[in-house]
Amino acid sequence: MKLLAIVQSSEKTGNTMQIAEAMAEVAPLTIAELKDAAKYNLEQFDAVGFASGINAGRHEPELLKYVEGFEKAPKYSFVFSTSATGNYKKYNQKLIGLLKSKGSNVLGSFGCKALCTFFIFGLFGGINKGRPNMDDFDAAQQFIKDIETQIEKLKNN
Ligand SMILES: Cc1cc2nc3c(=O)[nH]c(=O)nc-3n(C[C@H](O)[C@H](O)[C@H](O)COP(=O)(O)O)c2cc1C
């Protein structure tokens, strides 16, 4: 089992990277920063995850552009994000739709609340201080284990 997560996470907060790192503690997950994605052969992985913080209601534009540029999308994928509101069911839709339009089977979608220092929130240290927290990491680890289980079942069929 080989999983890859392609992650774009800001240097300032690094929330989404923290989530990816928590996942990698419990699953055979390689983490690639988006800027290094070209170094990886996506076809060598059983599933590829795509993740970033949410910017104006969707994933970061560079990540969306990267996925838009796929000639051949990974057969199996998953999506995650961190955001101020944690409303990932809405926010992840754009990226999920893009992956599906490229023929990828999106096995799951995850997200959680995280520190936001954007704009006036930064004046008082940000909102959601202490997030992601242990509960968020636990939920992220459960999510990636579920992805693994799904792939094992698909391989056995
Ligand atoms: C320019 C900008 C736009 C953002 N837009 C949203 C948004 O639309 N909804 C939301 O819930 N959070 C929004 N946020 C908060 C980030 O999604 C949140 O802090 C995220 O965890 C950052 O991820 P990262 O640390 O991995 O880069 C925004 C933050 C910035 C800096």
- The unreliable regions are none
Profile the largest sheet: 6 strands, mixed
> What small molecules are bound in this structure?
flavin mononucleotide
How many domain units?
1
Describe the structure.
This protein is of the alpha/beta class and about 160 residues long. It has a single domain, classed as Rossmann fold (3-Layer(aba) Sandwich). It is about 35% helix and about 25% strand. It has 5 helices and 6 strands; from the N terminus they run βαβββαβααβα. It has helices at about 15-25, 60-70, 90, 95-100, 135-155; strands spanning about 5-10, 30-35, 45-55, 60, 75-85, 105-115. A hairpin with a 2-residue loop joins strand 3 (about 45-55) and strand 4. It starts with a strand and ends with a helix. The mean pLDDT is about 95. Bound molecules: flavin mononucleotide. Flavin mononucleotide (FMN) binds near residues 15, 84 and 85.
What topology emerges from the helices and strands here?
Layout: E1 3-8, H1 15-26, E2 29-33, E3 47-55, E4 58-59, H2 61-68, E5 76-83, H3 88-91, H4 93-101, E6 105-113, H5 134-156
Parallel strand pairs: 1-2, 1-3, 3-5, 5-6
Antiparallel strand pairs: 3-4
The protein binds flavin mononucleotide (FMN).
Residues 9-10, 13-17, 53-57, 82-85, 114-116, 118 line the site of flavin mononucleotide.
Name the features:
157 residues; alpha/beta; Rossmann fold; 6-stranded mixed beta sheet; 36% helix; 25% strand; binds flavin mononucleotide
Brief synopsis:
This protein is α/β, with parallel strands linked by helices and 157 residues long.
